[in-house]
Write a structure and sequence with these properties.
This protein folds into two domains: about 160 residues, NAD(P)-binding Rossmann-like Domain (Rossmann fold, 3-Layer(aba) Sandwich), CATH 3.40.50.720; about 120 residues, N-(1-d-carboxylethyl)-l-norvaline Dehydrogenase, domain 2 (Orthogonal Bundle), CATH 1.10.1040.10. The chain contains 13 helices and nine strands. The chain has about 290 residues and is α/β, with parallel strands linked by helices. Strand 8, helix 7 and strand 9 form a beta-alpha-beta unit. The longest helix is centred in the middle third of the chain and has 29 residues.
Length: about 290
């Protein structure tokens, strides 16, 4: 099976390298062309456009930042749709609007091109290690055809329903994470204000009911007040907008998500949008009088 991968960002590069390591023939494309270099150096071919990348592919993966970007790389003038053959599978692993996902799938279906939405969770570490959680939506038979490739990138891979179901599940993931980041930030700052060693506190509570990936992997950022990537605040903020829109459509109250959304709006406005999501602790520290 020949694979095309479009989007060599923080997540996509690690994911593409794991596909290569598994022995698949891989063609890559990125809008900023120099970002293709690390993967090309490991044996991938480079394509000048998504259309060219898709032309010889059995499966096309997209992993880009936002809904308009996915529309551009799949449906745009030089999008993958125009190069892909009938029977090709397009797997979008970005986090975007479920409604737009369904629109893209319908456009592809007119050309007999199949689609799965398969957003991921697990951060840059998971992308590099091939341990991502992959949340898929689409047809069962198409999912089974794509599964061996998905298994090179992820550890937990679940088909959740028809097209769009993966994006709704990712929105759920991001609402839970929002509350978790906020809770860990509050806990770490409470420990610091009480004069405790907050990192020791994190170790003490990590084995109990308060344990979480965020506590284990990001509480140190919050204590040190340094926020290397990770996952950018501005991208998480984009994801929360998707979750809040889904909440409005379905009549679901998401108060903690709305609060974190506002806090991230402030962080982005102050120039911290490219820091890791754990930078939400900046706000809690400042409100608590800790620089």
């Amino acid at each position: 099976m020949k694979i095309a991968f479009i989007g060599m960002g923080t997540m996509g590069t690690g994911m593409a390298l794991n596909i290569l390591k598994a022995g698949y023939a891989l063609t890559v494309h990125n809008r900023t062309r120099e970002r293709e270099t690390p993967v090309v150096e490991q044996g991938a071919k480079a394509a000048v456009s998504p259309m060219e990348a898709a032309a010889d592919a059995d499966l096309v993966i997209t992993c880009v930042s936002d809904t308009p970007d996915v529309e551009a790389v799949i449906l745009g003038e030089k999008g993958a749709m125009h190069g892909a053959r009938p029977g090709t599978i397009v797997v979008d692993m970005s986090t975007i609007s479920p409604a737009v996902t369904r629109t893209i799938a319908a456009a592809l279906a007119k050309k007999e091109i199949h689609m799965l939405d398969a957003p991921v969770s697990g951060g840059s570490e998971g992308a590099q290690l091939g341990t991502l959680a992959i949340m898929a939506g689409g047809d069962e038979a198409i999912f089974q055809r794509a599964l061996p490739v998905l298994e090179t990138m992820g550890k937990t891979i679940t088909l959740l329903g028809p097209i769009g179901a993966g994006q709704i599940t990712k929105a759920i993931n991001q609402t839970i994470l929002a509350a978790t980041y906020l809770g860990v930030a509050e806990g770490m700052v409470l420990g610091m204000k009480a004069g405790l060693d907050a990192k020791q506190v994190a170790q003490a509570i990590g084995g109990g009911a308060a344990g979480s990936w965020v506590l284990d992997n990001r509480s140190g950022n919050m204590v040190d007040n340094t926020y290397p990537l990770g996952f950018r605040v501005r991208l998480h903020h984009k994801d929360l907008k998707i979750a809040l829109e889904a909440g409005r459509e379905l009549g679901v109250a998401l108060p903690s998500t709305a609060l974190v959304d506002q806090m991230e709006t402030g962080l982005i406005g102050r120039g911290f949008g490219d820091e890791d999501v754990s930078a939400i602790a900046r706000t809690i520290r400042e409100l608590s009088g800790i620089k």
